[in-house]
Specification:
By secondary structure, the chain is mainly α. About 45% of the residues lie in helices and about 5% in strands. The strands form five sheets. Strands 1-2 form a two-stranded antiparallel sheet. Strands 3-6 form a two-stranded antiparallel ribbon. A two-stranded antiparallel sheet has the order 4-5. Helix 12 (about 245-260) packs across helix 13. The radius of gyration is 29 Å and the shape is globular.
Length: about 850
């Protein structure tokens, strides 16, 4: 009998981590992701459809309602509040744009806004209606003022290294980083925490660097080296070993995939699969494992197709790298070709600017940025770069998708992976003939439509059914022919970007509307971030290569700062700038500005090596601090902005899942070939992926590392969804961390967790013959420490009572079976403790 109540009563004594409430001081930290959502999804719609009648700029507030200010939109007009945070149906705005009230339908005399826009507004209100348009903020009203302010704004000035400050206690620092931290602590009347125990440090290192728990053997080896050579030498040696592990690429590659908004489907209403997105995922993991310099890493992703290469293998790698620009969300249900491509370019600009320089340049699509020094001209100067490039995303037109996208053919390699099947040369010829016949029929349909519109009787009449049949049959043929050669052999293909042979300039669209084009804007860089040595954009190329060179130029003020801050955030729980995706005026300033700038300068000087930066930071005394609670320090600095301790952190979803597999002895460290999406939906008439019967209900049915689980937008594996996985539609430099009841229900009832507990129990049974030895091993494997004497006593008592109760209720005399069930429950309880999923 499976007793959840008795099993989880056990967590009372095995959960050593303090309550999450202690960490709640950070709950009110600015939510950059929500502000980004407002700027990209909400404000442009308000500007385009509402400001004309409801804004101070227009001088009109019909019905007493203004929608251009946070206070005004919540106060509402004569009919009541327009927005009530958390209650979409209570305010009038959603009612109006959804046309739920015929007398209130907005915009007036126009069709209802697209369903996805209404869904965005609903989500925005449900999640608190974050709105940076606060009247208390200083908002510059003209372009010149913003540009003038930008010259003195910390983030737009080139970083300059500072000499480390003098400190009174010279015995504490191990690196100049420590001197900056200790000096700030001293200024605030604070002191650093004591060093963490060696057992805590080795567990911290393993999870931070490779996302896996240390084995008992690794712990013993670390403790022995610390005893023999000192803790400094032990940390350095362990860090070097972990940095050299392929698992480092998987752990830190996943951090970049969060920023790159990696997903294996288009999202939006259609949500069509991207069966070849996995190539970009593997490129990122391999590049991080190989420690490709960050400036080169960025250049490959923005303009890999334009870089020189010495072999077909290198050419294939560089083409796959440009998948960064192709894997974002796409509204494939958009039938207007011009609108679709304008939205695609907008998504690329938004993702690139937030990911690389922590700036929301896409907010200037419809209007000059209200807070940061980015104008509509800046936006359309960048738009021209991406409009002069062609994005290959690999869908085809069907009743579910109005937009088709080709794929990039990769050079053939001896060990190439295609996944999709070959066909015979005869079948290839038949498919070409079928496609030619369908295209001829399509031409006849187009001609018949022209004749009908001209008032003439068409030579041949077609029905709507004929047209749909033509589309349904043409799409899969086009898609399949992209993936085979003339002999019918499968060819490797990838998502990515190539230069358009005819570069163009983008017009400036008034209010971002494609029906209102203005004068063309020369391709270029945002005015506030220009510098004399920035590479000029040639007339005969898109400018993507020059854009990459500008972003990675030593004089660029943001790129190195943003990246160094992201790395710091992953190791210390918060960035020196907490708003890791927003370095603009709506974001926070740095807690240690001189330290951030010095790290950025050093990072550039030392070859832009991620591994070198990570190694430097984990060897600091700051990183070595314990996470113990100090009431006086907490009262003075509740958010730990001055780093008086290491914060306790809950592990990410992937680390929790991978740790369960590691502890149970089931973790498969080999990389799977391709992805579940690629294997299940290739060569099928693609429909909405959420309805695809080929995909199993359980998307978590493997034992590989979690970085290889499918990332289907709007349909994630349970463990990722429940434990705050990054939203794959948005640039996410820092994930949310929640503590909600459904997580406990998952740990109690999930078949995945129960299966891991059973395997964990079997591992213990094979490794030890007596109860106490098994209990000790269970604690070492799951929590990285030996149990306390009282924990052994209580665990033994629990296992004995559980076994006796099960035996009494069992209808068989199989004592082995009932004993196993007690150990299964014990192991599941350990895997469900707060200590298991938290990092000290």
């Amino acid at each position: 009998m499976f007793r959840l109540a008795s099993a989880f009563a056990l967590t009372a004594f095995v959960a050593a981590a303090p309550a999450m409430a202690e960490e709640g001081a950070n709950a009110d930290a600015p939510n950059a992701a929500e502000v980004a959502f407002f700027e990209s999804k909400i404000r442009p719609v308000l500007v385009k459809h509402c400001y004309e009648c409801h804004s101070a700029e227009a001088g009109v507030a019909e019905g007493g309602l203004r929608l251009d200010d946070r206070s005004a939109i919540r106060a509402g007009g004569t009919r009541g509040p327009a927005v009530i945070p958390g209650r979409p149906e209570a305010g009038l705005l959603l009612t109006a744009i959804a046309h739920a009230d015929r007398d209130l339908a907005m915009p007036p005399d126009q069709p209802q806004l697209p369903k996805e826009v209404i869904a965005d507004f609903r989500r925005w209100i449900e999640r608190g209606a974050h709105d940076p348009r606060d009247g208390a903020a200083t908002v510059a009203s003209d372009r010149e003022t913003l540009l003038a302010q930008a010259k003195n704004f910390w983030a737009y000035r080139r970083p300059v290294a500072s000499p480390p400050p003098a400190v009174a206690d010279e015995t504490w620092p191990r690196d100049d980083v420590d001197r900056f931290v200790l000096a700030r602590l001293t200024e605030q009347g604070l002191a650093p925490s004591p060093d963490a125990s060696p057992e805590t440090l080795v567990r911290r290192l393993h999870f931070d660097l490779i996302g896996l728990p240390p084995s008992p053997e690794a712990i013993d080896s670390f403790l022995a080296e610390a005893s023999a050579k000192g803790i400094d030498a032990a940390i350095a040696a362990e860090a070097d070993r972990l940095l050299a592990s392929p698992a480092f690429g998987e752990r830190w590659g996943r951090h970049w995939l969060d920023v790159a908004r990696f997903g294996e489907s288009s999202g939006k209403e259609a949500n069509i699969p991207f069966p070849y997105a996995w190539r970009y995922r593997d490129y990122v993991i391999d590049s991080v494992a190989d420690d490709v310099p960050y400036d080169r890493f960025l250049t490959e992703q923005i303009a890999g197709d334009l870089l020189p290469y010495e072999s077909n293998r290198e050419r294939a790698r560089l083409l796959v790298a440009t998948g960064f620009l192709a894997v974002g969300t796409k509204n494939l249900s958009e039938s207007n070709e011009t609108q679709f491509h304008a939205d695609l370019v907008d998504e690329q600009i938004d993702s690139l600017s937030r990911a690389l320089i922590g700036s929301s340049i896409a907010c200037a699509r419809c209007h000059d940025h209200k807070f940061d020094p980015f104008s509509m001209k800046d936006y359309y100067a960048l738009a021209g770069v991406f409009e002069s490039s062609k994005t290959y995303f690999g869908t085809f037109v069907s009743p579910a998708s109005q937009q088709g996208g080709e794929l990039i053919r990769l050079p053939r390699l001896d060990d190439e992976v295609a996944l999709h099947p070959s066909v015979t040369a005869k079948r290839y010829a038949e498919m070409k003939e079928q496609l030619a016949a369908l295209e001829a029929e399509r031409a006849e349909m187009d001609e018949a439509q022209k004749e009908f519109l001209a008032g003439r009787k068409p030579k041949k009449e077609f029905t709507l059914t004929d047209a749909l049949r033509n589309i349904w049959q043409t799409g899969p043929l086009v898609g399949k022919l992209q993936t085979i050669d003339e002999q019918g052999r499968a060819v490797p293909v990838a998502m990515g970007v190539l230069d358009d042979p005819a570069p163009t300039e983008s017009p400036l669209f008034a209010r971002g509307e494609i029906a209102r084009p203005g004068d063309p804007v020369p391709r270029g860089y945002p005015e506030a971030l220009r510098f004399d040595s920035a590479p000029p954009i040639p007339q005969d190329a898109s400018g993507r290569l020059q854009l990459a060179q500008w972003l990675t130029h030593p004089e660029h003020p943001l790129t190195a700062r943003v990246f160094v801050n992201r790395v710091w955030s992953h190791l210390f729980g918060e960035g020196l700038v907490r708003t890791v995706d927003d370095f603009g005026r709506t974001g926070e300033g740095p807690s240690h500005p001189e330290l951030l700038d010095t790290l950025a300068v050093d990072f550039a000087k030392e070859g832009q090596s991620l591994k070198r930066l990570v190694r430097r930071l984990v060897l600091t005394r700051t990183y070595r601090q314990a996470s113990i609670f100090d009431g006086n320090a907490f009262h003075a600095d509740p958010d730990n902005r001055f780093l008086w301790r290491m914060p306790k952190r809950r592990l990410e979803a992937e680390a929790i899942r991978d740790a369960m597999l590691a502890v149970s002895g089931e973790l498969d460290l080999d990389r799977p070939q391709g992805s579940l999406v690629a294997k299940k939906v290739l060569d099928k008439p693609i429909s909405l992926i959420g309805l695809d019967k080929a995909l199993p209900e359980d998307l978590d049915g493997s034992t590989t590392r979690s970085v290889y689980l499918p990332v289907i937008r709007d349909r994630l594996p349970d463990v990722l969804e429940l434990f705050d996985f990054a939203e794959p539609a948005l640039v996410t430099g820092k994930r949310d961390t929640t503590n909600v009841p459904v997580q406990a229900l998952y740990l109690m009832n999930s078949p995945f967790v129960r299966q891991r507990a059973e395997a964990f129990a079997r591992r213990l049974a094979k490794a030890a013959n007596n109860r106490e030895a098994r209990i000790e091993l269970a604690f070492r494997l799951s929590l990285g420490r030996l149990p306390e004497p009282h924990e052994i006593e209580r665990a033994s008592a629990y296992l004995a009572s559980a076994s006796d109760a099960d035996a009494a209720e069992s209808s068989t005399a199989d004592s082995v079976a009932v004993d196993e069930e007690g150990w299964n429950r014990f192991c599941q309880a350990l895997l469900s403790t707060a200590e298991f999923r938290q990092l000290d």
